[in-house]
Amino acid sequence: MKKLSDLKSCPLLEGIPSEDLRRDCPTAKVLTYQSKETIFGQGENVRAVFCLLAGQITLSRVSREGESFTTALFGPGEFFGPTLSGNLEADDTARAKETATVWQVPIEEFRCLLLSHPVVSWEFIAIQARRQRQIERRLEGLAFKRTEVRLAETFIELSGDFATRCEHGFGQHLHLTQQELADLVGASRPVVSTILNKLRDKGILGYSREYVCVRGIDEIKQLINP
User: Fold this and answer.
1) What tens digit of pLDDT does each residue of 100-157 get?
2) Cα–Cα distance measured from residue 213 to residue 218, given in angstroms and rounded to the nearest whole number
3) What percentage of residues in the chain have a pLDDT greater than 70?
């Protein structure tokens, strides 16, 4: 287990005094998961809340027909886990996309923490409301928007506002496969691959089997409002 100082990558937790965290969440742990290691599996009984502190994690689901698809990709500061929606049985499998550091706390202790800090509770509700809105926008996009627009909106959603530079000279390095991107956009992989090829030819992005690099937010926004 690592120190509470590792929580600095989550603004919500960083603002809580360390003595309050120890009092309300005495059994919370900071754990490290290696690339592709499972945090919890679909159908598993989970009584904890998780917060990603470093790295990336994916949520994926296997349908009754045995087909697997990615439902979400989370970066640092994101909370996840079935208990956030009132369930104990996980609908998805959470897996480290790369080496990931995760804060894990029993749901009862997390509730105690929120009850002790009303301002933090309000901020947490706001975080969940933003995520709900993202889901609603994704559903609206499936019904009313072209695949190119949905792809651009997904890039913006995942990019963190393009705050960091990538090692390949673009604006943002997104560690995800074309299939994962297609799942998030709600399109087939060949369709997404065709669009990526066109954007690469225009110099807007670069990609490989394991990542996509986007040059900048202005170029992507032009896809939404040409």
Assistant:
1) 999 999 999 999 999 999 999 999 999 888 888 888 888 888 888 888 888 888 888 8
2) 14
3) 91
Integer angstrom CA distances of residue 5 from 24, 31, 113, 170:
17, 13, 18, 31
Can you tell me which residue has the tokens 């393009």?
Answer: 162
Largest distance between two CA atoms of the chain: 55
Gap between the Cα atoms of 141 and 162, Å rounded: 22
> Which pLDDT score is estimated for 103?
95
Structure confidence at residue 63 (pLDDT): 85
Determine the Cα–Cα distance for residues 11 and 7; give it in Å rounded to an integer: 8
Task: Match 């994962």 to its residue by tokens.
Answer: 180
Contact 185, 150 (CB under 8 A): yes
Q: What is the pTM of this model?
A: 0.82
What tokens does 135 get? 């889901």
3-state secondary structure 42-64: CCCECCEEEEEEECCEEEEEECC
